[in-house]
Automatic annotation (TrEMBL):
Protein name per the record: Geranylgeranyl transferase type-2 subunit alpha
Transferase keyword on record: yes
Family statement drawn from the similarity comment of this UniProt entry: Belongs to the protein prenyltransferase subunit alpha family.
Native species: Talaromyces stipitatus (strain ATCC 10500 / CBS 375.48 / QM 6759 / NRRL 1006)
Enzyme Commission code(s) on record: 2.5.1.60
Length: 353
């Protein structure tokens, strides 16, 4: 029979209701059983099985993840050799493998569930605490491969990039020698990911941190830092083939902080003189002005030009009348292109007047 424009209503039958109620009762019984067994300190295989079942049904139940930790801590304590007083790696490795295998399908089904990732980091850190470096490192190297697959599937997943940071830090702690090679490998990785997708904001951000970290690890000279700065500026110039891409301008803006006297000490090139800073700013301004000729409706270009003049004024300690007029003209264009931020543009206008 035709519905004549009336939306169909889903009908819940008595069978559906009974089935739902049965599922709720089963869940409540399972939950009650787990609570009782943990309260009685029954850290057995049967308790672990029930915990696994409950977490599959509700991975957001953080209390149950804590129960799982209690069980595993009990298991690890049981592996301690009476003769040496040290954990038995031969017994610990299968426990950790079992947990990682249990977590994998949960992560695929619930990739943004914090508690799964939190527990995964915990069990991996237990590997680092309890196992010889070589064995622990194998687990963390496997984790790096896993996060690589995650980012290949979704290269802009900021959760994945954040998790990668934890994994790299653990691998560095477990490294026997050159940590610089790990950081350099991460920079190379960001280069590959950026070439795959220039709009990958997470990769650009990760690159910023990795470069500064490498320079600090090497105790790089001012000349080395200046060389890296110029390489990164060139990379950003080559990437700005699409001036409407916000992520590229954020990276360029980060590089421009190098020339801001109030921020320079926290950037990748700290030893520039004011004359050098001013020269770089003028070069960037000229390049961005050239872009403006072809993209007069791109707000990011106007914003970058405003930033250039503001930074130059900080370096020189004053803003010339010509520079002020330029800023006011660019702000007028920004008010037209991005009226939702007119309050911000007004603040800058008041600042330069």
């Amino acid at each position: 029979m035709a519905s004549h424009g009336i939306p169909r209503q889903s009908v819940t039958t008595e069978v559906d209701t009974e089935q739902t109620q049965k599922q709720v009762r089963t869940y409540r019984d399972l939950e009650r059983s787990v609570h009782e067994k943990i309260a009685e300190h029954k850290y057995t295989c049967d308790t672990l099985d029930q915990v696994c079942e409950l977490l599959k049904k509700n991975p957001e139940y953080y209390t149950i993840w804590n129960y799982r930790r209690l069980i595993r801590q009990h298991d690890f304590a049981q592996t301690t050799s009476e003769s040496s007083g040290q954990p038995d790696a031969g017994e610990i490795v299968p426990i950790i493998k079992s947990d990682l295998e249990f977590l994998f399908p949960l992560l695929r089904s619930f990739p943004k569930c914090y508690w799964i990732w939190n527990y995964r980091l915990w069990i991996l850190n237990e590997a680092k605490r309890l196992l010889p470096k070589q064995l622990a490192r194998q687990f963390w190297e496997g984790e790096l491969a896993l996060v690589g697959k995650m980012l290949n599937a979704d290269s802009r997943n900021f959760h994945g990039w954040g998790y990668r940071t934890f994994v790299i830090e653990a691998l560095e702690d477990l490294a026997d020698d050159d940590k610089e090679s790990i950081t350099q490998a991460e920079i190379d990785y960001t280069t590959k990911m950026i070439k795959t997708n220039l709009s990958n904001f997470s990769a650009w951000h990760y690159r910023t941190k990795a470069i500064q970290k490498l320079l600090d690890e090497k105790n790089a000279s001012d000349q080395e830092r200046r060389h890296v700065l110029e390489q990164e500026l060139e990379l950003s110039h080559n990437a700005l083939i699409d001036p409407y891409d916000q992520s590229l301008w954020f990276y360029h803006q980060n590089l421009m902080c190098v020339f801001d006297p109030s921020l320079a000490d926290r950037t990748l090139a700290r030893g520039l003189s004011n004359s050098e800073r001013l020269r770089y700013v003028q070069e960037e301004k000229e390049l961005i002005n050239e872009m403006l000729e072809d993209y007069t409706d791109c707000k990011w270009i106007y914003q970058a030009l405003v930033d250039c003049n503001l930074i130059a004024a900080k370096i020189e300690g004053t803003m010339s009348a010509e520079s002020r007029a330029e800023v006011l003209g660019w702000l007028k264009s920004l008010n037209e292109l991005d009226p939702l931020r007119k309050g911000h543009w007004k603040d800058i206008e008041n600042q330069v007047m």
